[in-house]
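User: quick one, fold this
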Amino acid sequence: MKIVIVDDERHVREAVRLLVDWEALGVTEIHEAANGEEAATLIERVRPGVVVTDMLMPVQGGLDLLAWLQTQRPEIQKIVVSGHDDFHLVRGTMQHGGQDYLLKPIDPEQLTGALKRAIARWHDQDRSRKDELARSMEINQLRPVMRDRIFSDLLGGGDSNGHAQLALQGEPVFRQASTCLVAVLDLDSASSEVAERYARNRDLLYFTLTNIADEVLRRGDRGLACRNLRSENEILLFFWIEPGAAARRDATVQSLLSEINECCFLALKCRFDYGIGTEQPFPKGAANSYQAAKAALRDRDLLVERAYYYRYDAAEVRSSAATPRFEEYEESLRLAVLSGSDKQIRDAVGRCIAEMRRMPRISSEQFERWRTAFAEMLQRWREADAERAEGLPVAQSRADGTDGLPLPTGALPLDARGRLDLDGLETVFREFLTAWSHSRSAASQQSQSAIPAVARYIEQHYNKELTLQDIASQFYLSREYISRRFKQETGENLIDFLCRIRIDKAKLLLESPHFKISQVAEMVGYADEKYFSKVFKKLTGLSPNQYRKNNA
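Assistant:
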């Protein structure tokens, strides 16, 4: 807590200092000024919590200082110490927020009491200010999330509760929006470098692009940008449309989108594709405008040089019925992967991509169907491999899926001119399936070579307490898988193999008269002598004692 004492008489300021136990009040700094003007400059610099001031001073008196404090620093608590019992001065003190009016000579108890009350009020108000600031910060943090939710919900059609208009009223600059145009920034059109850079931090990419677009649109209150919570790959751009000619409207939207794209390039070294919807009433028509923007993006021809800005035109939107037929190539692709032959994979992928090369036009919608068909094919393969993958080592089980492999989905594979790069697509597709094929082959070899290692492990650790779960954990295999594979490769159950090894070792030990039966049992891994004897007799037809006598 800081205090400022204001009085033109030095001895009065010193008396105030000496009459109060400042440390007990929690005061850490005491500053002095000789008049109101000097005090105002000092207060701006040190920001005290309490000011103790005289009323009649040269240059600027106490009433003027109190008036200045009331307008500029209302949070500061004010105490007056005056030698004049004047109604005009007392009333002025109350009018300007002074809490106590003390008369000279100063009574120490009165001054201490007034300071205690002032300091307590300052702390109470400070807590309230901090609470209000925290609430304000929380609201400011939630506002973008609420705005994203409200404007994303518009895409479902309508805004019966007027939430969108209500959200706009909280904007720094508000103009009643009656007509809008929705554009869509397509994150899938990002360069491969940007897609890779933000693969593990997608939210940061959303935040960066939304802020860039929002800053451009807010200049002149032209619109706003927000994240589309209904889609994983879109940012929504709402333009407030002025009544006027369509040409002027189109030029304005095009200019703003170009500015946004150039800002994106400066920040990320990447430009994006935008679908531009139709002019619609706001908020009820926002969903229709959005659907038109999406249709424009779906219809863009990926085989021609990239345009970046795609405007919806119902007369030009074409049907995208033709799609590469994966069902005709799936079996050859699957057999190539199973073969492990790089050449067979290359040939199978080449035949599949060749159909795409023959197409005169490939729309974004067609390519998306291709990616969907490819993903569905992979899912069918995973399901077919589920039984096998269940028993593989953990690391190999992940590799048998797509973790860590360059799956050819996500950002559009485009060449330097922004056209669909079929050569690059074929390369990525081939490399992915080759990597998957090799991972399957490696996993299969590892799983097959694991069984001899399991047998050696049992032979070396037979004298310890071993369970099927212990052995499976040691080799990162499932119990079911290791049990099944051990039987297939050795013709013997794993537990039977362990018992046989133990009993063979026990036979050698029983031939020595120096070991008791209980000691032999413990040495070959049986803690219970009776159970050992039972297992021994089951496998040899003799009890341990009988075997010892026969081989003495």
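User: anything notable?
Assistant: Confidence is low (pLDDT under 50) at residues 389-410.
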